[in-house]
Write a structure and sequence with these properties.
InterPro entries: SwrD-like. Keywords: Cell projection, Cilium, Flagellum. It comes from Lysobacter korlensis. With 85 residues, the chain is an alpha+beta fold. The chain contains 1 helix and 5 strands. The strands form 2 sheets. A 3-stranded antiparallel beta sheet has the order 3-4-5, covered by helices on one side. Strands 1-2 form a two-stranded antiparallel ribbon. The longest helix has 24 residues. The N and C termini lie far apart (48 Å). The model has no long low-confidence stretch (mean pLDDT 90).
């Protein structure tokens, strides 16, 4: 989730995967995939940076999770069922 600010200065979190487009004319408007729109105080560039940082954090956490898996705990071959050919 990224945290952005409405024009009334209330903050809220939005799922960046649902953002279809960002418009700046002159206010920055987030348009979600379902058509919902939010006007925010952040600039277009700031929203793009928030989304980029969010995605970088997701990738970094996934990489950390993979690095912490013990080699012995990885299943390399599925067990066969008895009686199967």
């Amino acid at each position: 989730m990224i945290v952005v600010t409405r024009l009334n200065h209330s903050r809220f979190a939005v799922n960046p995967d649902l953002i279809e487009r960002i418009q700046a004319s002159p206010d920055t408007t987030l348009v979600l995939a379902d058509g919902t729109t939010y006007v925010v105080t952040e600039t277009l560039e700031q929203v793009i940076d928030l989304v980029t940082d969010f995605r970088a954090r997701v990738i970094a956490r996934a990489r950390t999770a993979v690095d912490t898996i013990q080699p012995d705990s990885v299943v390399t071959q599925l067990p066969t069922r008895r009686g199967s050919r």
